[in-house]
Amino acid sequence: MALSVRTTTPSEIERFMQVHRTGFSQVWDDDLRARNHEFLASTPGQTLHAAFDGDEMVGTALSLELTIALPGGTCVPATGLTWVATLPNHRRKGVMSALLDAHLTLAGEQGAAVSVLTAVESALYGRYAYGVATYDAVVTVTTAHISFREPPTGRQIRFVEPADSVPAMQRVWNAVQQHRAGMTNRPDAEVEWWTAKYDGFLIVAVDDAGEVDGYAAYTVDRNRSPTQHADDTVKVDELIASSPEAYAALWSTLISLDGVGEVSARCRPVDELLPHLVTAPRRVDRSHIADGLWVRPLDVAALLRARAYRPGPACVIDVAGERFRVDPSDGSVETTDAAADVTMGVAAFGALVFGGQGAAMLGAAGQIAGDAAAADTLLGWPLAPWSPLQF
Fold first, then answer.
1. Of 86, 178, 351, 366, which is least surrounded by CB within 10 A?
2. Does the CA dihedral 98-102-107-109 come out positive or negative?
3. Element (H or E) spanning 57, and its range?
4. What is the distance between the terminal CA atoms of the chain, rounded to a whole angstrom?
5. Looking at the whole model, is its pTM more than 0.85?
């Protein structure tokens, strides 16, 4: 097989979509095909890679320029990887590896500190030195007999049109990114793409100054019993709030919608605040936890220097042969030949640098060696990392 990878031309976008669709056995209607074509052809900051066996396109991948927040709020350049697919008759022939090589080469040229992705299959990316940096929860709330300890106040809730609300939503998203490690920015084109055809409801929380500091997008599944009693399910597609007041007001509104028996929200942080606000926390179920953002560090020194640290002793950390002395007292990071307190590979560092996935657990799993407690003290962070953008 004469395998090669290059960026696509505009005339190849239809074939790019067809290969991706076939790789995942997807059926698109004409509207979705047209919208995907427009998105791929006109969205800035993205690069389409295609793998060819001779003249036949057999694999696809898309690189997306992003930023990602580290503990302390500093954002560093990141390159996202998505739209990865291989034709079924070309699997296990090096297509995916070749596409990843092209993506990582581009990420290096862009000066990205990390490559990031969300995985359709969780078994695929560990062998390419990606580690799980964030986890997601599905939060399901049974609305009967649940109420807030203190009634939410200080925010008005308004219903708005999604397509008209992109700037306000983006302001809230960007504000939240500043204090939640692992959160990427979201390109305007991405939110414009889904709001343009969003068939649901959008509510916003507005403070006394008239500023939007939270929003929730949701749909409703209609469920009617034989006796016509309403028992609808609210499905929350996004709930983003930059203040506790907005957060509480949005959740309170969703839980109190007429005829609703259950509220279900996907892709939520594992340290969701809601159970601590209500009188019956057991009715807030977080039983389904899954891997979220996978991270491959590309510049270990840049990541260590950009993030903040909690108070603690200096620690010498070895990441795949690169050794650094990190002093949380002043945030200094220096290369060193001193003996390492803790040693780990690139994937394990990717799982830890955003403040999640305790080092002690990875040590027990054999993924790091040395003083795991020192690594937890150095790299841990009070808030769990979270990445609500699915790409």
1. 366
2. positive
3. strand 56-69
4. 30
5. yes
